[in-house]
Inverse folding.
């Protein structure tokens, strides 16, 4: 049974989603405003948070940013705005996924199952990957560069893990999307580029190394011996 927090000010929608999640065998808590949702997210251990963007008190983007300071709980943003920049802003703030209102409950439940499955799978792995100065401890869900810890979101971690597991093999965007976001993902195709930029900012730029290489027209690769 997974423990899920719904932060949504539309009471009828929140109740509908709550009932569906309970029917799926989950435990559900609810908050109707950003400040309450933030307090609950930080004081409890949830398996996933469903977070509306337009909230009274503190908006969803700010709630997410504050959660990410202390926790890596998977977060799915719910937004009524379909603009690309709104979605990119959510991903940049650390969201694991997003869904736009109005949505089909079947799609939401599918996205939740994928996020929970990914969380469980990453917790079950118990080996390390090392390329040059970069090490991933998959059991602890930790990344270090030359012994220095690097804070990554779940999607950033998964993207780095897959690239390191396939060291010296160029992976195209479609394969990366399928392996990380799932075959039913129908969001923006530039999502991989967004997260590559995140990794480069946190690792390449910060530590002065060349970790992830772009192969124009194909995809991305980590080259052993060229860090």
């Amino acid at each position: 049974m997974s423990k899920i927090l719904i932060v949504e000010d539309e009471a009828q929608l929140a109740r509908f989603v709550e009932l569906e999640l309970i029917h799926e065998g989950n435990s559900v808590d609810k908050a109707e405003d950003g400040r309450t949702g933030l307090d609950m997210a930080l004081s409890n251990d949830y398996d996933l948070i469903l977070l509306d963007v337009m909230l009274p008190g503190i908006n969803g983007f700010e709630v997410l940013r504050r959660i990410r300071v202390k926790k890596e709980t998977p977060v799915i943003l719910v937004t009524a705005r379909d603009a690309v920049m709104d979605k990119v802003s959510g991903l940049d703030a650390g969201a694991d996924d997003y869904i736009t209102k109005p949505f089909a409950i079947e799609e939401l439940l599918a996205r939740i199952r994928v996020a929970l499955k990914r969380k469980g799978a990453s917790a079950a792995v118990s080996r390390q990957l090392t390329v040059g100065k970069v090490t991933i401890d998959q059991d602890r869900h930790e990344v270090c560069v030359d012994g220095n810890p690097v804070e990554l979101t779940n999607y950033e971690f998964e993207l780095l893990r897959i690239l390191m597991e396939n060291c010296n093999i160029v992976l195209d965007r479609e394969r990366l999307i399928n392996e990380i976001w799932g075959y039913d993902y129908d969001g923006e195709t530039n999502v991989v580029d967004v997260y590559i930029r995140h990794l480069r900012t946190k690792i390449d730029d910060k530590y002065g190394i060349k970790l992830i290489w772009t192969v124009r027209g194909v995809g991305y690769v980590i080259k052993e011996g060229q860090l």
About this structure: The mean pLDDT is 88. The radius of gyration is 18 Å. The chain has eight helices and twelve strands. The longest helix spans residues 105-124.
